[in-house]
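We treat protein structure as text, and this decision shapes the records that our systems exchange. Because each token names a local backbone shape, the row as a whole describes the fold. An entry from our holdings is shown next, in its original layout:
>
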Amino acid sequence: MDAEDYADQAGEMFVLSDSFIRIKELIDDESSTIDDIADIILLDPALASTILKLANSPFFSYPGKIDTISKAVLVLGITEVYNLVIAYFATETFKSIKCDAQFLEEFWESSVDTALIIKYIGFKLRMPNAERLFILGLLHNVGELVMQQLAPEKAAKAANLSSGQLPWQKQQAVFDFTYAEMSAELLKEWQLPFSIVEPIRYQNKDDFEFSTAETKLLYLAKRVMLANYQCSDIKQEHLISPDKLAEVGIDKALIKEANEFCDLERLGILAVLNPGSAMIY
């Protein structure tokens, strides 16, 4: 089976709710108003509560209080709120997965870290249209959850890295595809935008010649995260090439700042999106 075959199975198991589909339809419809979108979100109290908690978190640093969904859409913008909707439904969808609780805690912690790191770096580089960066980081590795569910023995084998081996190298050896490709195929099944799917698909591509700015940032942010987790024993120069850092305009000082920002914001985001993971703190 290839990544598309697994994605077909996963698409039947991990289904986004009707509320998500309706919100997506409204956002895609240029005639929709802010109130139209807010009204659909309000039909799901848990979703509405999550959006308001995130909108009022230090993550967005809005100086006033956002106390209605309409205001959240107005202040944060439709794209940002849509990304929060995706984040909510994606984390909710995977709560049904059958796997070790500690693995899930570590998975969402590393995913949130990647999301925070890429968001911070994108902000510091003043990247235009940076709203999608957080969701790129959060969903960059959901393919691993799929394989934990559909092929747990192989997933366990893929997690067992040899000294100096990078995760995607082992995934390729075990599955003949990477979790990046698996993630992209699932997100395509969910009909998420191309601007989200493609950077996730090509996040491991070393050749930057045809990479978008978002793909380059995800490539680097994911490696910064891995340096703190699964690949902490690998020399930074092997994990993150100085040439790649220079090409994107990132230095070690910015990486340090991004990690510090991540340490400050991680618990707050986990507490909203995945309260079980926040308990480990």
